[in-house]
Amino acid sequence: xxxxxxxxxxxxxxxxxxxxxxxxxxxxxxxxxxxxxxxxxxxxxxxxxxxxxxxxxxxxxxxxxxxxxxxxxxxxxxxxxxxxxxxxxxxxxxxxxxxxxxxxxxxxxxxxxxxxxxxxxxxxxxxxxxxxxxxxxxxxxxxxxxxxxxxxxxxxxxxxxxxxxxxxxxxxxxxxxxxxxxxxxxxxxxxxxxxxxxxxxxxxxxxxxxxxxxxxxxxxxxxxxxxxxxxxxxxxxxxxxxxxxxxxxxxxxxxxxxxxxxxxxxxxxxxxxxxxxxxxxxxxxxxxxxxxxxxxxxxxxxxxxxxxxxxxxxxxxxxxx
Length: 321
Ligand code: ACO
Known about the structure:
With about 325 residues, the chain is α/β, with parallel strands linked by helices. It is built from ten helices and 13 strands. Helices cover about 30% and strands about 25% of the residues. The strands form four sheets. A five-stranded mixed sheet has the order 1-7-6-4-5, with helices on both faces. A four-stranded mixed sheet has the order 8-13-12-11, with helices on both faces. Strand 4 (about 80), helix 4 (about 95-100) and strand 5 (about 105-110) form a beta-alpha-beta unit. It is globular and about 55 Å long. The mean pLDDT is about 100.
């Protein structure tokens, strides 16, 4: 039966031009290409140019998503930017994106759920569209995490990179196409395992990423599998129905662990972490845009997005493409 749903019209990704390899990283801190690849699957990351802001990355990805959707910004009613690295403390980067795209109408706001930001933003846009806020939403994940890294701390600086990804959602009826269900979770008791040691209200500065890597790892696989199973339960689907698994691209070992626990065959898992490292809220739409552009994801496919990040926050969203 047909139902009004938020249907994906187009996706797009953008990575800054500058590539930084693991070998280059090993000139900055005591690390090696072998260590980074073995522990994380990361081969390289992209770094935003001086003066290139999160809003610039967001706009570049948004333009590609709009092009894929065969739409202009005039057709968009809502812009959500999921980011942990806004251009400024305020206004929202989404407002700057709105300006840079020449959009005077509609509504725009940022969403902060760190690496889970894009999944949170998809769920939020979906509910806002269904609540009558408008017909189409531009959902963006964009980060310049390189600006909040401690480049002397080898336990964190090797893990992150810059980038952006975007998706256009449109409310419509087309069989069972669209966002079928989402599941969002958080547990603030774990915030001190992954955080920045600064902020406007505490230090009047932005701080750097601090992380207890082992603790994050320990929680990641269990949390991810919980929300993915919740979404399967909500929709009456199983892992056998799934065509594509689009995990947050933080660490190949976490992705492999979740895949094994859920029983998802590796050929259904989209992996891009080797290419751009952990781009936080941008990682899921970046992976999506790669798999959509190379023709892997096709109309009618069942696609599961998932992410986990600081807070802790975690979530999953099931989409009939
Ligand atoms: N290069 C070389 N050696 C390193 C590096 C590095 N970059 N970083 C740490 N080491 C050393 C450590 O000092 C330690 O040395 P020691 O044994 O002499 O004390 C050794 O490597 C092992 O360190 P561990 O922390 O035990 O390494 P582990 O296997 O846990 O891997 C990692 C570390 C990759 C951070 C892992 O814990 C992890 O992936 N955690 C998840 C974190 C994550 O992905 N965060 C992203 C943000 S959250 C999210 O998106 C889910």
